[in-house]
Amino acid sequence: MPKVSVIMPVYNVEKYIAETISSVLAQTFTDFELLVIDDESKDRSIEICESFTDQRINIIHQKNRGLAGARNTGIRHAQGEYLAFLDSDDVWLSSKLEKHVLHLDSNPIVGVSFCSSEFIDDDSRPLGNFQIPQTKNITPELVLCRNPISNGSVPVIRKAVFADIEFTANFYGNDEKFYFDDRFRQSEDIECWIRIALTTKWQIEGIPDALTLYRVNSGGLSANMMKQLDSWERVIAKTREYAPDFMAKWESLARAYQLRYLSRRAVRNKDGKAAVQLVNRALASNWKILIYEPMRSLLTIFAAYLIWILPRGLYNSIENFALKRTGDRQRKAIAKSNK
To answer: What's residue 108's pLDDT?
Structure first.
């Protein structure tokens, strides 16, 4: 049996899929299977997958169920002790699996291992910025409010964790075991991470390396901010059902952080009006984000109002300068953490 099962949902990603698969096959850790889940893709994605001859690749076809449904199919077929997830438009550095396997082998109480990410554009060019989450002392409230796992291409998770959170439901005409909740077409990952944090004893812990290249794609699911907020609210409603006391304490703060995050996305999309509305809603939900993360919150407020009132050219010059400074600071932080 392979040590690791890599689970890759595929749906209409013909532009990226060859690069994504190549990044898996280039891993320095080689004891893995790659489960390509064809979620009824309509373009040439699966044809491209079939052009690879590596015996570790297994292509599984299914009717369209969305990202959560494709991941669940992968989990059901996985033979590995560890399950690694990779979205089919993202890329891994070659040492990713090796470092996560070492992390999990060395820490038997850690159930979820994750890493930092570097942003790339539609043409795989580095954008110079990173997601650098907190890696230690991951509490349920941190998962709810700040989602340190950050995106679906960073976690490597023990299969035993999924055994602890599985549930049986009839979503498609017969009883099946589920892990991610197929009812969510967005926010399915954070819903799962919250459930792991609240209902199991497994620890969630990160390693500081930026081992995932996360593609910023305005055409992706996260582009529609209001739909994303709506799906997040559905996650909150579900979590409230089984953890009412926990949610009573942390819900308003979590909503403030989510609204602030969406405001930052609106800034990146150059939508000043939406950015201002969202950051104002964040402060109304829980103004204490100004105390807990003053710099990040103030920068979001300033950026939202600046893009709303300044000429586009002037704002772009300010933004480019700020992003370069941030990227330089993040690279230094990553280098320092790896010493």
So the answer is: 98
Q: Tokens 């990553």: give the residue.
A: 334
Q: How many residues does the chain have?
A: 339
- Give the torsion sign (CA, 137, 138, 144, 145): positive
Collapsed DSSP state (helix, strand, coil) of residue 248: helix
Q: What is the DSSP letter of 148?
A: T
Q: What are phi and psi of 245, to 5 degrees?
A: -65, -40
Q: CA–CA separation, 290 vs 143, rounded Å?
A: 19
The predicted structure's pLDDT at residue 224? 79
Query: Sign (positive/negative) of CA torsion 181, 279, 118, 116?
Result: negative
Task: Give the pLDDT score at 218.
Answer: 56
| Distance from chain centroid for Cα 307 | 27
Q: How many CB atoms neighbour CB 222 within 10 A?
A: 16
pLDDT below 50 — which residues of the chain?
Answer: 220-222
pLDDT number for residue 307: 87
Distance CA 126, CA 156 (A): 23
Which whole-number Å values give the CA distances from 25 to 65, 96, 108, 134, in the listed order? 26, 12, 27, 29
What are the DSSP calls for 22-72, one per residue?
A: HHHHT-S---EEEEEEE-S--SSHHHHHHT---TTEEEEE----HHHHHHH
Where b means 16+ CB within 10 Å and e means fewer, 9-36 reads: bbbebbebbebbbebbeebebeebbbbb
CA dihedral (164, 169, 174, 175) in degrees, to 10, reads 30
pLDDT in tens, 239-262: 999 999 999 999 999 999 999 999
